[in-house]
Specification:
The structure is a homodimer of 303-residue chains.
Chain A: H1 3-15, H2 18-25, H3 29-43, E1 48-50, E2 55-57, H4 59-83, E3 91-97, H5 99-116, E4 120-126, H6 132-135, E5 140-144, E6 152-160, E7 162-166, H7 168-174, E8 188-193, E9 196-197, E10 200-205, E11 208-213, E12 218-220, H8 222-230, E13 235-239, H9 240-249, E14 253-255, E15 264-271, H10 278-302
Parallel strand pairs in A: 3-4, 3-5, 8-12, 8-13
Antiparallel strand pairs in A: 1-2, 5-15, 6-15, 7-13, 7-14, 8-9, 10-11
Helix pairs in contact in A: 1-2, 1-3, 1-4, 2-3, 5-8, 5-10, 9-10
The structure holds a DNA duplex (25 and 25 nucleotides).
Amino acid sequence: MKLDEMDLLVRVAETGSMTLAARQLNLTPAAVSAAVKRVEETVGVRLFERTTRTVHPTEEGLRVIEGCQEVVARWQRTLEAVRGASQSLAGTIHISAPADTTYQILEPVIARLSQQHPELQVVVHSSDALHQLHREAIDMAIRYGPMPDSTLSARRLAICPGVLVASPAYLERSGRPSQPGELAKHRCITLRLASVPVTTWALQSAAGARTVPLQSPLCGDGYLARRWALAGQGIALKSLFDVIDDLESGRLERVLPAYTTSPMAIHAVFPSRRFLPARVRALDAAITAEFNDRLARCERWYG
Amino acid sequence: MKLDEMDLLVRVAETGSMTLAARQLNLTPAAVSAAVKRVEETVGVRLFERTTRTVHPTEEGLRVIEGCQEVVARWQRTLEAVRGASQSLAGTIHISAPADTTYQILEPVIARLSQQHPELQVVVHSSDALHQLHREAIDMAIRYGPMPDSTLSARRLAICPGVLVASPAYLERSGRPSQPGELAKHRCITLRLASVPVTTWALQSAAGARTVPLQSPLCGDGYLARRWALAGQGIALKSLFDVIDDLESGRLERVLPAYTTSPMAIHAVFPSRRFLPARVRALDAAITAEFNDRLARCERWYG
DNA sequence: ATGCTTTACGTCTAGCGTAATGATT
DNA sequence: AATCATTACGCTAGACGTAAAGCAT
C-alpha cells in the first residue's frame, strides 16, 4: 500500500468524484478507478459505492479514509520536521478569493511572502465559487457569506456588515439620499454573484428592515463595483471590510449611514485534509494577521 | 512511499541490521539496502549511518523511523477495525519462551487458543536467548530475569523467588539438608544458561546471604532440571513460579525452606513496533491470565 | 575468514496513459 | 448528448533476486 494511494482515496472521498480527484493528482480517471479497485482488493472491503454519476464512501470506506487522512498527515508532519531544517518555504500554493479581496488585500500580503521565500510559488484564483475548491486543488480560499457545511473546513476571519458607499464627487453631483426610497433615483452599482445579477438590497437600521429593488446600469464583480464607486459612477453596496481604506482616506463616503446589511462572515476555507503544509500555514498566518488588522480598523471606524 | 518500506525501516532500526531485517521480511539484503537508499533519496536525508558491521539511525533517521512506526501502526489499526468484523483470529504468531515455561505453562494456553481459532497458527520457539527475538520475527517472548533495556518493550508478568526443590523419594533416600553447607553432599541439578553452566547458587535467608559452589552431575535446561528433580535425581533450584504445581501436589518438596534466591522478574517481551495484531493481543491476554492465576497461587503458598 | 553492506545486471510485475465501452442524467 | 466510471491493452519504470565486490571484525 502506497501513501499516494491513500491520498488518492482521501481526494476521491472529498470531491465525491474520481475524475476530479484525477485532475487534482495529474492522473487519468482510469488510473484513479484502477487504484480504488486495487486498494479495495488489498484491504478486502468495498470502500465506495458508486454509480457512474456519484461516488459515496461506504461505512468501512469512511473508516479507511479517515485512517488514510491521519496516516498521510502524520507522514507529512515527519517529512516537514526532518527536512524543514531549511526554514525557507518552497512549493506551490493555490489560493482562491473574490476579486476585490485578491487585488486589495491579498496582493500585498502575497507579494511580501513571496519576497521572503523566493522558492515559493503562489497561484491566485480569483473566483467566488466554492466548488472550484475541488475542481482545482485549491489549498486555501477566502469566502464571504455563510459557509455551506461540506467536506471543507473553515475558520472565520472576520464578520462585518455591508454598507452603501459613493465617492464625494458623485454625492456632490447627484445629492445625498436621506432614506432608502430615494435610492431608486440614483445610479446603483450591483454585483453579479455566480453569474446571477443581484437585484435587491436588503438594508436594515434601528428603525427596521427595508428591501430595496434596483435596476442598475453597472453590474460586475466586487472589485469593479468598488472601482466604479471610486470613479464616481454611483452608489455601491460593499462589505465595510472592503471599503475601510477608502472610507478612512475619504475617497468614499457612506450613503444612508444609518443603514447596513446584516453582518456577513468572511471565512478562510481549507480542504478537509488533516495536514496543512508549512507554506500554507505561513500564508494563512499572514492573511489572518492582515484581516485582524483590518477588522480592528473596521471596528474602530464603525463603533 | 510505501508502507512496506516504512515497516522495513522500522525493522532495520530495531535489529540494527539490514540482513536481519531482510530475513524478517523474506527479502534479500540487497533489496533492503536498495530500499533504504531509495527512501533516503525520496526523503532527502540520510537515515542510517552505516559501516559494514553496524547500522545506526541518524538524528533525522530516528524522527523518520518514529513516524514510520506510528504510520504503520495507525494503518494496521484501521485495517483491523475494518476487516476485524470476522471475530476469529487468523495468521501466525511466533512466540519464544524458556523450555519449562513452554511445556508446562504455555502448552495448554496455546492449545486452548488454537482450538478457539482454527485459522490461527502458533509457532513456538523454545529458547532462552533474547537476541533470537530479532533473528526470527518473534511476536512475543517470555523471559526470566532482568530486562536489558534495548529496542524491546517489556511488561512484567510476575516476580518470584527461586527455591530449592527435590522429590520426597529423593529426600527420604538422601536425607534433608538442614543448612546450605550440606548441599555439597547432595546431587544438585544445575542449569546451562546460554550455553554457560551455572556453578553457584546465591541463596539468602533471614540470617543472611550465602553463595554455594556446586559441581553437579546433571546440567540442562530448566525443563530437564524439573523433570530430573521429579524423577528423584537430586535437588534443583527453580523459580517458585515453575514448581508451584509440583509443590501443591506434593510431587516436589522444598529443600532448605528458609532459603530462597532473590526474587526474579518474569517479563513478556515484545518487539518495539507500536501495534500488536489482535492475534498477539489475544495470546498475550491468555498468557497473562494464566500467569496471574499462577502468581496468585505462588503468593498464597509462599505467604 | 566470516559475515555484513553495497553495486551491477537481468527479469518481471505493478501502475500508468490511451482509447474504447458502458452507464447515468 | 454529455459526462462519468470502467475495461482492455501496450508500455515503461520500479523493485526484486542473483551474483560479485568491498569492508570490518
